[in-house]
Each structure stands twice: as C-alpha cells, then as structure tokens.
Write a structure and sequence with these properties.
683 residues; globular; mainly alpha; 32 helices; 70% helix
Length: 683
C-alpha cells in the first residue's frame, strides 16, 4: 500500500468495503447506542410526565374503584368485634381483643381507604387519552429495559462475531508482519484454526462443569453462544486455508515466518498451554475470555469509539484542521511538535490511541512528508500522535480504571493526566527540535490572516456538533462527559458526515443523503475490521493475564519481606512496561486491577500515583518492541513499503529513529512520573 494513495481524496477506506456487513454492524452499533440511552430516555419521560400531570408517579389511567368501606361507625364496629369474640379451647393463651388496639387498626384502615379514594378521584380527573398513551409508552420502555438487562451481553457477542469474522475473512488480525508467500499464509490460518479450536474445547470443558451446577442457565446459554462464534471462526479459517489469494507466490517457511501468526494466537497458545499442562484448568481459556461478557458495555463502547474514528476519516475535518497551520510554513520538527500537541485531544475523544492512528494517521504522515520530514520522523510522530492523549478527558481507558478501582476518580486522573501530557509533549518537542535542527518557523507575511480565513470552513462543523450535543441534553437530559461520550460522539460524527456530504465533496450525480449513506457504510465496514482485531486481542490478553493471576508471580514480586515503596515502584515500572509491550491496554488494565494494584497500594504507593504510572508505562509499552502496537497500526496505515524504505541507509539512530524517538521521550517521562511524586509522600 502506498501512503499517498491512503490520503488521496477518492480513497475513503483502507480495506474492501463489505456493504452488507457494514449495514448490519452500523445498525447493531446504533441499536446498542439507543439501548444505552434508554435509561436517560426513561428518566426524561418521567420528568415530562411529572411536569405535565402532578403526582404522575401515582396516576393510573386503568385504576378501578376501591372496594374498601369508606364510611364506618368505629365505636359500633369495635363493640361488634368484641362481642363476637369466643375463646378458643385449644389455645392456652387465648384472650379477648384489646378495644384500643382494634380501634387504632380500624382508624388506620379508614385513613388508608380515604387515601385510596382520593387517589382514585385524581385518576378520574386526569384519566385522559393523552395520559393513557403517555403512560403506555413510559411503562413499555421501563418494562423493555428491565426485561432486557442481559441483552447487552448478546449484542456484544453478535458485534464481536460479525466484526471478527470480517477480520478473519480479510486476514486483517494484528500480526507483526504480513504473509509473503503461500506457506506463510497457511501457517497464519492454521494457527488461527488451532487457537479457535482450543477455545471451543475449553468452552466444552466449562459447559461440562456448568451442567452440574444449579442456577447457571444464563451462563450456559452465553457459553453456547461463544462456542458458536468460535466454531464459525474455525470454518472461516478452514476455507481461507484452502483458498490462498492468487497474489501470493509459492515459497517455504523461514525463521521469521512465525511473525505472520496474529498476536492473539500467540497469547491463546501460551495461555492454554499453562492452563492445560501446568494448572490442570482446561476451562481457563473460556472463563477468562468470558469475562468480556461481564464487561460487555465497556467493550461495546470500544466499538462505538472505533466507529467514531472511522467516521472521522470520512470527513474533511483532519484536512481542514491542518489547513489552519499551513500558512505558517512550519519546518518539519516544529510541525511534528504541533501535531503531537494538537492530536492528543482527538485521541482522547476516539477512546484509544490505535483508533486515532487508523483514522487520521495517513493524513498526519502525508502532511509531515509534504513539510519535508523524513520517513523516520514522520513514522515516529504518526505512532506517537495516537498515544499521548490516553491521559486526557474523556479517554475511555481512564473511565475503565475508575470503574474497576474505587480508590481513584476520573476527575483526579484527568487532572493529573493533563500535566503528564504537557510534560511528555514538551519533552518530545525539545528532543525533535534539538536532533533535527532548523526548527524555527518563518511565517510568510499575512500568515495569521490566512490562518484565520482557514478557520471559517470549520465553523459549520463546530455549530452542528454543538447543536447535536445541545439537542441530546434538551431531549434526554444527558450531559456530555466521559461516561456519555461513547453514546453522544457517534451521533455527532454522523451529523458531521451529513454536513460534509455537500455538493463540493461528493461525486457528480450523487445526492447528499446517498453520499451520507455510502460514507457511513464505508466507515462501519472499516470499523468491523478494527473492532474484530482489537477485541480478539483484548480477549486473549485477558486470558494471558490469567496466568499472572493464577500463578505465584505477583507474590514473588511483592513478598511479605518487601517494605520499601521505592523498590516496589521500581518493580512496578518494569512490570507494567513489560505488560504494555505485549498486551492491549484495556486487557492490561483488567489484569493489573486484579493482580498488581492492591499489593502495590498496600506497600504505601498512592492509588492515584500508581494508576498514572500505569498509564504512562502502557504508553511506553505500546511504543516499544517486540510488539509496539502503535507502530504496527502505523505500518498498516502508511504501508509496509514505506516502513522498509526508511530502514535501508544511515546510522543506527537514523535507521531506527521511528522506534528510538518514542522511547527517548516516554522512558524519561515514565521515570519522572514514577519517582518524583514519591519524594513528597514516601520519604
């Protein structure tokens, strides 16, 4: 793939467009979005009902007349009951009723009856057809939400099945490199078939245990659903094993051929080997992967954020934003610095660094190359453009940390995360400008006026986005924050695509609605590939983390004799960085929450400090070999040819600057974040 082709105006997708799959996935994601807004909609309906009909909560259009006695001579009724008393010869403790107690009971019943008749009178007064219709809608929505609490889990499984199937059919699961001949293709497909088969076997073992456990019907049905999903993957792998693409030539396996197996396969094989041969826990793979079902809302949000990123790619927003800085004619080092600062905030809004790279990485690389940046600097900046924003509001990763760990809040983490971002981005700027030289901008006369003119095309986008957010707040009472962002942002981006599909940016003879529909389907089709690849990686990352949870590794790293928080922090820095190198951040957060967090906190490390260190370590991890997830995604966007071309000449630093520059920035940042705060509370 050529990097210029990726960002050409006519190129809208990186992968073949599966229109039917795109339509299904788009509708599925929109349905989950509406389901997520269901509680807000119901709360708004209750508010509207209370504002329209006083005491709406108590009104019942179908109320019937109470059957209790409204008028009663209390004294006569007391005498009647006392006179009717007859001792029970079989009851040793039988005694006549207390007149005062009988009187009190009758008076209370009479008061309750009066309240029932009063409420009945109010119902008669307000029992209009409008109330009946409104109550039917409100109660119907409430019943639907209550009856379908478990529906989210099955929607997540359906989303994963569809997305991962497309990733498997297109052979787009994340690997260290692509197959280069037919033998390597079959190795990749065979490894996927094996791991998927191991998952089916593990699910079968788990189902055998559940068969003898009462009250597990819901869990059993989920496991059958997962078994069906992985059985489907096995069928796809078998078909693709036989049907090798014609573009691949004949060849044999080499020592590096193992790099073509998707990362999730390596994780699955390692995890299953431990569970089966060491731990005797054949159902371990199924149980740990099934943890995704319990956190289905979170992983659906990841899918929604991926959709946001892919929709962003269908608009002109990235180009329009970069047009505002073009008049300044920034040298390549300064442009790289500006991009690092500017792209961090969109990264936070797309939920994770990899999503932003896939959405905008091609544009970032293109502009840097146009400004005269070398391939190495362009690749490093593109990879880092999708990493520094994970500590900013409203990044989903921090929401997940706060949900799993009650010792910290999102407000605290976003507050300190902002200063960590400023420090790391500033350090990047200093290193790049020092290493590259020629960093001073030389704006042409009138550059500020030209930049101001370039902001005008952005005003309609800002206005439409604000109107959508405002409309959602007015209609649903749902404010935009880190928790509602996954629900609101897809609607905002769809509105921006509709705005962007004007006559100047669509093909001749294409209507605005048709252009909007085609772009939305293309975005959903691209989303399917990335959702499937990311969720598979996350799921098997959790399985790999199960080894750490079930073994004695954590106890060995944090023995009872360890009392120094400084040594503990050193161990944590190394361990979290290693975890970040090989695991997806979402799976890593789940693992760290279950294993490392509490021992570290008990050793005297502040919980907020621990999790900020964790985030920075993960940033360093997914910019570091051997996996370097952000670099893999950058390669996926700009093309393997560009990556290979930049490693052929020059010194060691020049040939591997794309890897060394991020390390030179993030390693000092991690050390500063880890140890400087401890001087204020651990001395």
């Amino acid at each position: 793939m050529n990097w210029r082709a990726v960002t050409a105006p006519a190129a809208r997708t990186l992968y073949p467009v599966h229109r039917m799959h795109g339509v299904v996935l788009l509708l599925l994601l929109l349905f989950t979005l509406l389901l997520g807004m269901g509680n807000s909609l119901h709360s708004r309906l209750l508010w509207v009902g209370e504002q329209t009909w006083p005491n709406y909560y108590l009104l019942n259009p179908d109320a019937t007349e109470p059957s209790c006695q409204l008028e009663m001579d209390v004294d006569a009724e007391v005498r009647k009951r006392i006179d009717a008393y007859q001792p029970d010869p079989d009851d040793l403790f039988s005694s006549p009723p207390n007149p005062d107690a009988v009187r009190t009971s009758l008076e209370r019943n009479l008061e309750l009856c009066q309240e029932k008749y009063s409420l009945y009178a109010q119902n008669l007064k307000h029992a209009t057809p409008a109330l009946g219709a409104f109550k039917t809608v409100e109660q119907g929505l409430a019943d639907f939400l209550l009856d379908n609490i478990e529906l989210t889990k099955y929607l997540f499984i359906a989303m994963f099945a569809l997305a991962a199937s497309i990733a498997a059919m297109d052979a787009d699961h994340i690997a260290l490199r692509l197959p280069r001949n037919r033998a390597e293709w079959r190795l990749s497909q065979g490894a996927q078939f094996t791991v998927n088969g191991l998952m089916v076997a593990s699910l079968n073992s788990y189902l055998g245990k559940l068969a003898n456990s009462p009250g597990t019907e819901g869990t059993v049905s989920l496991q059958y659903a997962w078994a069906g999903v992985f059985g489907l993957f096995m069928v796809i792998n078998a078909v693709r094993f036989v049907n090798v693409p014609d573009r691949l030539r004949r060849g044999s396996l080499a020592l590096s051929s193992g790099l073509v197996t998707p990362l999730y396969c390596g994780m699955g094989l390692i995890a299953m080997s431990y569970f089966f041969f060491v731990d005797g826990y054949a159902s371990g793979l199924a149980i740990y992967f099934g943890m995704m079902s319990n956190l289905s809302s979170m992983f659906i949000n990841i899918g929604l954020y991926v959709l946001v990123g892919m929709i962003l790619k269908q608009t002109r927003l990235p180009e329009l934003l970069l047009n505002t800085i073009k008049p300044f004619n920034l040298p390549a080092p300064m442009l790289a610095s500006v991009i690092i600062f500017a792209t961090a905030f969109p990264t936070a809004f797309t939920g994770a660094s990899g999503i932003f790279i896939l959405a905008v990485g091609g544009v970032v690389y293109d502009e840097l190359r146009r400004a005269g940046a070398g391939r190495q600097l362009s690749l490093a900046t593109t990879a880092m453009s999708g990493s520094l924003g994970v500590v900013l509001n409203p990044c989903l990763l921090i929401v997940v940390i706060a949900a799993l760990n009650k010792e910290v809040t999102t407000t605290e983490m976003y507050g300190w995360g902002f200063w960590v971002f400023i420090m790391s981005a500033t350090l990047f700027s200093l290193i790049v400008c020092k290493a590259q030289g020629n960093w001073k901008p030389r704006p042409a006369p009138g550059a500020f006026r030209a930049a101001a003119r370039q902001t005008r095309p952005l005003l309609p986008y800002v206005l439409v986005a604000a109107l959508v957010v405002l409309a959602i707040w007015v209609i649903l009472g749902l404010q935009f924050n880190e928790y509602s962002a996954p629900l609101i942002l897809p609607l905002v981006m769809l509105a921006l695509v509709l705005l962007d599909a004007g006559k100047d940016s669509r093909e001749q003879g294409e209507s605005r609605f048709l252009a909007f529909w085609n772009r939305s389907i293309a975005a959903a089709s691209d989303s399917a590939v990335h959702i499937g690849a990311l969720l598979a990686l996350i799921g098997f990352s959790i399985c790999l983390g199960g080894i750490l949870e079930r073994s004695d590794i954590v106890h060995a790293l944090f023995p009872e004799s360890l009392t120094s928080p400084w040594i503990a922090m050193l161990v944590i820095v190394v361990m979290l960085t290693l975890i970040g190198m090989v695991m997806d951040p979402f799976g890593a957060v789940i693992l760290v929450s279950a294993t490392i967090a509490q021992p570290a906190i008990q050793l005297g490390i502040d919980p907020l400090h621990f999790w900020i260190v964790c985030l920075v370590a993960f940033e360093l991890g997914y910019l570091s070999p051997p996996v370097a997830l952000n670099h893999l995604l950058t390669r996926q966007v700009v093309g393997e040819t560009e990556v290979l071309a930049c490693e052929r000449t020059g010194s060691f630093w020049h040939r591997y600057e794309r890897l060394l520059l991020p390390l030179a920035v993030m390693a000092p940042t991690l050390l500063l974040v880890a140890f400087v705060p401890m001087m204020f509370y651990a001395l």
